[in-house]
Amino acid sequence: MLRLGFPVIGVTDLDRATAFWSAALDLSPADEWSSPDWCTLVGVDGARVLAVMTSASPPEPHPRLHLDLVVDTTAEQDAEVRRLIALGATEVDWDSYPPEPDFVVLADPDGNLSASSTSAGLPPVAPHREQRPYFGSSTKTGISRSVFSWYSA
User: Fold this and answer.
1) Taking every pair of C-alpha atoms in the chain, what is the biggest distance, in angstroms?
2) Residues 6+ apart with CB under 8 A from 51
3) What is the pLDDT of residues 45-103, one digit of tens each?
4) How far apart are CA 2 and CA 53, in angstroms?
5) What is the pTM of this model?
6) No. of helices (H) and no. of strands (E), the chain
7) C or N: which end of the chain has fewer Cβ atoms within 10 Å?
């Protein structure tokens, strides 16, 4: 049966990206499939969460695929955006903001665009499962807050 694995982000500097995403999401590099061009990042439970791989293609200015990383409050979102900037993300003067945006566009250290946004309609977490980042869409209802929507080509 076909299953969705985990996101893979194309980067130009594997070590810098590994350090950034490890610190940003409290992940650890795994030895599995490790190479000079690939690093799998795992959560505290050892589950694969994300991978970074070297890529020669430049970041897209308006990527079509993104990941929403969710927190519960606006205060948490604001704190996480500040923390991500301290880790190496930069705020971007993005040309596609809607009126009264509920997100801020950031770029990771490789220039890949991302955004903090408000996400709604999130499915409840099953009682037997740990809360994990949810990959969702943006609205303004404020049910939970996306810290950083990762856009990737």
Assistant:
1) 45
2) 6, 7, 8, 9, 33, 38, 39, 40, 41
3) 999 999 999 999 998 888 887 767 777 777 888 898 899 999 999 888 878 878 877 77
4) 23
5) 0.75
6) 2, 9
7) N
